[in-house]
Prior knowledge:
Helix content is about 75%, strand content about 0%. The protein has helices at about 1-25, 35-80, 100-110, 110-115, 120-140, 155-170, 170-180, 195-205, 215-235, 240-245.
Amino acid sequence: GAAVNLTLVTPEKAIKLAANDFFRHHLSKDGKKLTLLREMLAGCGAGTCQVIVTTPMEMLKIQLQDAGRIAAQKKLMAAQLSAPAGAAEPVVEARTTATQITRELLRSKGIAGLYKGLGATLLRDVPFSIVYFPLFANLNKLGQKDPDVKAPFYVSFLSGCVAGSTAAVAVNPCDVIKTRLQSLQRGVNEDTYSGILDCTKKIWQKEGPSAFFKGAYCRALVIAPLFGIAQVVYFIGIAEFLLDLLPKHRA
């Protein structure tokens, strides 16, 4: 799933940051400072826009990562059941690709198949943006000597790291639920889920509350530098600089 993950990260962060700026601009009154509620509403809008565009890629990423786990389970079971002597060579299964998964989903479930788990994804990414953007904005302001001057790049980086890791841990339970719902194939003795509430209930009953924070530490470590770098690139204006290098269209 590395290729799909790489394809997912760039538009996800670009859409989220650009949409947040758009909503902040339109929610501000005459360029005045936004209230906390309006900052949260802007984050909500940014998260919603990003989810609508990137959910299919997120779905494919999970399926590709899941395929390796399922294949390993099948290989282990086959090895345990095979005779110790004179056993035939194991059949090597072809690797599952993103194209194969996409075709199968479209064939069996249509466009809706690519949006499986949309509700759970909204449940994760919208609260993430509601926490992240107001927290980042206020942390970043601490490094501004003047309201009209941008904060130093290291302040934006550290603000993105702190805000990203905090938001990631806060919404980790939603991420666990989303991942379980978007897994099309189940391993041996794994539960199936009919929806968000059913998934939440089964995880709570069978694995306990701590299951909702599985991977929270690793997720925070990944999200922190990811958003730190994204905010530095966005605030320094590297994208605008690169766009200026392109040949101008003459009317």
